[in-house]
Amino acid sequence: MPLFDLAPEALETYLPQIDEPDDFDAFWSQTLGEARSVDLELRLEQVETGLALVHSYDVTFAGFGGHPIKAWLTRPADVTGPLPAVVQFLGYGGGRGLPVEHLAWANAGYVHLLMDTRGQGSRWGAGGHTGDPAGSGPAVPGYLTRGIGDPAEHYYRRVFTDAVRAVDAVRSLDDVDPTAVAVAGTSQGGGITLAVSGLVPGLRAVMPDVPFLCHYRRATEITGAMPYGEITQYLAVHRGEVERVFRTLSYLDGVSFARRADAPALFSVALMDTTCPPSTVYAAYNNYGARASDVVKDIEVYPFNQHEGGQAHQLTRQIGWLATLP
């Protein structure tokens, strides 16, 4: 796959105007206020994994609408807190799987919470365990067009709220330093990470890896790959709904969330990525922290990679980078 997007030097200065609604902040303030009016109902049950150096817990907490959201929490064994924490979000279609699959952050000394993504977990990996009780109108198979006619009904309004509540849950734990919570994720998980970065102040760090859910209009104009192709497919059938669809998505754009972020950030981008095109990633990166002052940020560039990005190379970079932060 050759380079197909903007030239690398153009990407570095790419600052598109996006269609951000005037009531963006009010919409999310009301959404999170409603979610936080419900008790977290946080439950942790230790599970036996046969691993001697970490302890793992089956976690349940109340997300959007009070719906039960599952997660795995893994922490170093026999280490007293308070510890720093990393909350991680998953890629499109995957579930939390098994706790033995997610050990890097705990072995680096962090409390690690991996949030299951509601309604997903059957496309790859070892499965998910969280349903999505909310329905939607007609949609293309996948998740991106569920509730596409109204931001209040959209699937990602629920997921982003779940993610904020996951951070709330981790910050409430006695053995976690609430001022030292970072968020991370790849692809869809990177897009969720960006949403949290703009909705939760005072994070220690933000690590979106080849993030999805950014600059939707640009994405649909330059790639036919799924999942952005779900929007194209929907609009090819619902021909008169273009502006309505993009209005809904304007409440869910990683670029808008990135502008509101205030924590240090380490992004990654792959320049041959047709799933999450480089210009959509740079639109979020170049706007990151625009409303704050002197936000530390960096981006790791993988020039010859597609959507796999840096994989373990990027995780190694993240572990080292996070350890350098004050």
From TrEMBL:
InterPro entries: AB_hydrolase_fold (IPR029058), AXE1_dom (IPR008391), CE7 (IPR039069). Residues 1-324 form the Acetyl xylan esterase domain. Pfam families: AXE1. PANTHER family: CEPHALOSPORIN-C DEACETYLASE (PTHR40111:SF1). This is Acetylxylan esterase.
